[in-house]
Amino acid sequence: MRLRSRPRLRTLLLAINLVILILPLAGLQVLRLYESALIRQTESELVAQAAVLSGAYRADRQWLAGADAATAPATLPPAPVTGLDLADDPVLPPPPDPVPATQPAAPLAAAAGEALAPILHETQAVTLAAIRVVDSAGVIVATTGDDLGQSLAGREEVDRALKGERVSVMRYRERQARFVPGDLRRGANLRVFVATPVVAGDQVLGAILLSRTPRDLAQAVWGKRFSLLAMACLLLGAGIALALVASRFITRPLGAVVAQAQRVAAGEAGAVVPLTGPGVREAAELSAAVAQMAATLERRADYIRSFAAHVSHEFKTPLAGAKGALELLDDHLATMSEEERRHFLGVIGTSLERLERLVRRLLDLARADMMRPGAGAPAQLLPLLERLARRYGERGLRVTLRCEALEAGIAADALEIVLAALLDNVLEHAGAGRTVAIAGRRDGETVVLSVSDDGPGVAPGDVERLFEPFFTTGRESGGTGLGLAIARAMLAGAGGRIDLVPSAQGACFRLALPRAKPSSTPIGYQRPAPEIPQ
C-alpha cells in the first residue's frame, strides 16, 4: 500500500476528537432519552389540563344538581411518580374509533358536559390537545371532535379511569406523521393519552380523556437550529483546535524524527540529534532513543569498515607469503635443493598456521560480540583458575592464586577464553619463567579479578591502543592482536569490563564481573586458595 493512501496523524486526531464530541449526541439518539423527555413533558401538560377540566366538570355537575361543591371534595388517587418512557413502556396500537352508545348519557352529565364544551374548545385552540369528557358509563358528553353521544367504553385507559385510576399510555397514530419545518403540527408517530377520573367523595362521576402528539426530535432540533448550529461550529472549532495542539506536540516532533531518519537513510552522517523542542515526554524519549540508535549504528559502521580493513591487511600478508612460495616452488621445484624446498614449504606452513589462528580468533570475537548478560551457567572461579594454573604451568608460567569461593555471572568457557588471552600475552611478550598472580574477591554485587605479572609491562605509547583489534607488538612471533579485543568484548557481553591498571612492575589487568547467585557452598566455609608451585 502506498504511503500517500494512508491518512496523516493529524487527520486521525481530528476524526477522533470529532467522534468523541459527537458520541454523547449519538448516545442520546440510540437511547431515545430526549424523545422520552419530550413525551414526559407532553404527559405532564396533559395531566395538568385534565386536573383542571376534572375540577370544572365536577363543579358544574354539583352546581346543576343543586349541591355545594365544597361538600363533596375529590379523593383522586395520587399522580404516578414515574412518567412514560420509550425504553420501558409499550406503545399500544392506534385507538379504536368511538362506538354508538347503547343508551344516552344521563341528563345531569349531559348538561354539565354542554356547559363545559366552550372551555374545551378554547383550551384546544391553545394546547392543540384532543379532549373528551365521558360519564360514568363511558358516553361522551363533551368533546372537541364530532363524536358527541358516542361511547368510549371498552378502551383500556377509559375503563381504568372509570375505576378511579389515573392512566397515561402511548399509542401509535392512525396515519403516518410528516414533519414540516415551521408548522405547528407534531411530527411524532405516536400520541400520548391521559385519562383522569372525575371523583366526588367516593363516587366516580366520569373521566377526562386528553391526547396529543408530542414534539419529536426533528421539531426540537428545528426549534433550536440556530443554537445547535452555533454549538456545532463551537464543537468543530474545539475539535480542530485540539487536533492542532496534538499536531504541535505529537505530529511535528514525529515528523522531525522521520525527516532525520530519512537523511540517515540517504547516507548522511550525524543527521540524527535529539530534538530541542520535542513537545511531550514520549517524543523526547523517542528522539533520544533514535539519536542513540543512529550514533550506535554509525559507530558500528565505522567499526566494521575499520575491522574489514584490518582483516584484509592481516589476511593479505600470510596469503601473499604462501602464494609467493607456491609460485617459486612451481617454477623452480626441479632445480631447488632440498634445503630450499623445505624453506618454502615452511613459509607456506607458517602462513597457513597464521591464517588458522586469525580465523579462530575472528570466530571468538564474533562469539564475544553476540554474548548477552546472564547467558550460560555461572562460572565457578576456583576450579577454573586451578585448571588454567596447571595448563600454563606446563608451558612455563608460575601461576599463583588467591581467591574466595565465588561464582561469576559469565559462562565458564567465556571466562576461560578471557583469562587464557591474558596468560598468552604474558608468554608472548614476557616469555616463560614469569610469575602471574591472580586474585579474586567480592565487592558488593561485583566479582573483581586482578591478573598481574612480573614482565616488562606495557609501553606508555601502547596503552591507548591496547584493546584495539589487530593491534599487537608481537606480530613477528605470531600475535594476531585480537586476544585483548576478544576479552573486552566477552566481558562487555556478560555485563562486565576489563581495564589496565597501574602497577609497580609488569602489567596488571582488573576484571569486573557481575556476581552470580550464591552457590550451594555452605555459609561460613571457604575453600583454601592454593598456590601452584612451578
Count the beta strands: 15
Morphology? rod-shaped
User: What is the CATH first-level class name of the domain at 32-223?
Assistant: Alpha Beta
Measured on Cα atoms, how large is the radius of gyration?
51 Å
Number of helices: 11
Given as residue ranges, the uncertain stretches (5+ residues, pLDDT < 50) are 68-72, 182-187, 519-534
Strands side by side in the biggest sheet: 1-6-7-8-3-4
Give the amount of beta strand, in percent.
Answer: 15-25%
The CATH topology of the domain at 32-223: Beta-Lactamase
- In CATH terms, what is the architecture of the domain at 32-223? 2-Layer Sandwich
Q: How widely separated are the two ends?
A: 73 Å
Helix content: 40-55%
Overall pLDDT score = 77
Structural class: alpha+beta
N-to-C series of helices and strands: HHEEHEEEHEEEHHHHEHEEHEEHEE
Largest sheet: 6 strands, mixed
For CATH, the homologous superfamily of the domain at 32-223 is named as PAS domain
Describe the structure.
The structure is a single chain. It is built from eleven helices and 15 strands. It has helices spanning 9-31, 33-64, 107-127, 156-162, 217-223, 225-265, 281-332, 338-369, 381-393, 412-429, 483-493, and strands spanning 91-92, 99-100, 130-135, 140-143, 150-151, 167-172, 190-200, 203-212, 378-380, 398-403, 407-411, 435-443, 446-453, 497-501, 508-514. The radius of gyration is 51 Å and the shape is rod-shaped.
